[in-house]
Amino acid sequence: MSRLDEIKSKLLDPAVAASDLETVQKASSAWQAAAEAEKLEAEAMNLEEEREKVKTETQNIGALARGERQRFWIGVLVPLITGLGVIATLSVQIYQVNQNTKLQREASEATQWRNALQSLRLPTGLASRPGTTLVKSFLSSPSYQAQARGVILSLLLSLADVDEFEDFFRGIMDTTDWDNYQDVTRLSRRLAERYAELTNPGEGNKPPRTNIPPEVLQAALNREISIVGNALAQFLREHPDRPGNVRLDLGGANFSWQDLSNANLRGAILTDAVIAHSTVKGSDLRDVSEAGESLWTGTAWWRANKISPQLVEYLISKHSFDPKAPYYKDSSTMSEYCSAVASLGGKDPACQ
């Protein structure tokens, strides 16, 4: 029996109920206290039950939340993984398609290149215009550009039609940079050699084998030399910032009647070069040490901005100022010539 029950039984005892009032009051107070204690105990039990219930519900909610999170991530990750798998599969397929397309394109380009070469020659041995045009189309091909340049440059040496020459040569210049500029220098040199073979057959030169009349071929070569010289001069003017690892080799090139003003010719090889009746005003000719047999007739070379001492000495000895000779785009007097030579560090005996 609990303490509360004990108190209740004592209060209900008849012997106690018949006693004096003070005892009854004490019993009544005890009864009230017992009732309050019982009520508090019941409330405490209810609170404990509520606490347990809340704890259980909290655990249930936590478990439910974990389950919901798992279901959420499953719902997100499964499609994502599936999508990644599809993307990976498509990527592989696209790569394979691209590789196959690339191989097919390369194979097709190789076939077109062979066909172009086959159509290049006529039964007579002359170059076919359609074939040359086909080869020209390969100048923009990363795989066949170098080969196409080589073929066209060779054909240019046998073209007497100046219009055709200019058309095909334009394609060469469109793909010329500091890595292959020497192709143009060699072309200029070879055209000059052909011109010499035609005009001076008695000096050990063999005239070209062709059915074209010599005077027609001579006029064509003269024009073609000018076209190439003009294009090369323009390239030099428009590309003053030459890479440090490029040695400018203009040996044997022909720049007759050309504009080389303000050109960067520093350190250039000018052996056998023809810079006749041209302008080099403002050009940089420093560090030029190889210029033997170069021709400067009719060129006011003293108008250059800077010239190496070796070249100044050579030009004074070979191409000193002639008051009676015309100079291309220049009307210098002897006094002006002497002053300019002195500023370049040269000493011309004619100025003494």
Secondary structure tally: strands: 2
Radius of gyration: 52 Å
Q: Round the mean pLDDT to the nearest integer and report it.
A: 82
SS-based class: mainly alpha
Task: Give the tally of structural domains.
Answer: 3
Tertiary shape: elongated
**Proportion in helices:** 55-70%
Strand content: under 5%
Name the poorly predicted regions: 122-126
Query: Order of strands in the sheet with the most strands?
Result: 1-2
Largest sheet: 2 strands, parallel
CA(first)-CA(last) distance: 148 Å
Which features characterize this protein?
single chain, 352 residues, mainly alpha, two-stranded parallel sheet, 10 helices, elongated
Describe the fold and architecture.
- The chain has 352 residues and is mainly α.
- The protein folds into three domains: 3-89; 153-243, no CATH class; 247-352, no CATH class.
- Helices cover 59% and strands 1% of the residues.
- The protein is elongated and about 160 Å long.
Characterize this entry briefly.
This protein is mostly helical and 352 residues long.
Compile the SSE list and pairings:
Elements: H1 3-11, H2 14-17, H3 21-118, H4 129-136, H5 145-156, H6 162-174, H7 182-199, H8 214-238, E1 284-285, E2 306-307, H9 309-318, H10 334-343
